[in-house]
Amino acid sequence: MSASDYLLYTGLFAAILITQLGTRRPDGKRLLLPVAITAGIGAKYLKGLPDGTAAHLLELAGLGAGLAFGLAAIALITIRRDPGDGRLVTIAGWPYAAVWTLALALRLGFAYGSTHWFTRQIASFSAVHHVPPATYGTAFVIMVLTMIIVRTIGVILRGPGRRSQHQLPGLADRPPPRPLSTPVPQGPIAGIPQ
Question: Which residue in 14, 30, 111, 178 is a FRET match for 36, CA 20 to 30 A apart?
């Protein structure tokens, strides 16, 4: 990876965290902008997917890693209604940021290591299994894109139909049930002959 690639991935990481960390209102722009940015970046790497079984297996590994990290990220987002106006909000804290940081560190660590620490091993593996060098970048782009898409779909699926934990379908207009500790009124009941 070139220095511009490192900056690009780090900038994308920063943009994702800046737009998603904390309490946010999930609107179309906030949800789809990271997908669009990653897809635009991915167009550079995904123009021609490398051929070969090993290449496709590495791409599937990127897809699997993106799915795993995306599911972990969505599990760490709280989605609730704002008590003030009833609109949905997402709350993503430091555990969410840690998942994204770990995913970035693994990608950048592999990219750096493949050119500085284990260059011969990667070259040997690639030669033996007929893996074009572009496959690794493609796998990482697929990983990031999958991660972002899973997060976006997760927020969309968990969002609009979400009800308050105290609100059940058809019960919104009924008064809450009386607590069991409230005494039952004694004496004549209206409408029942005594």
Answer: 111
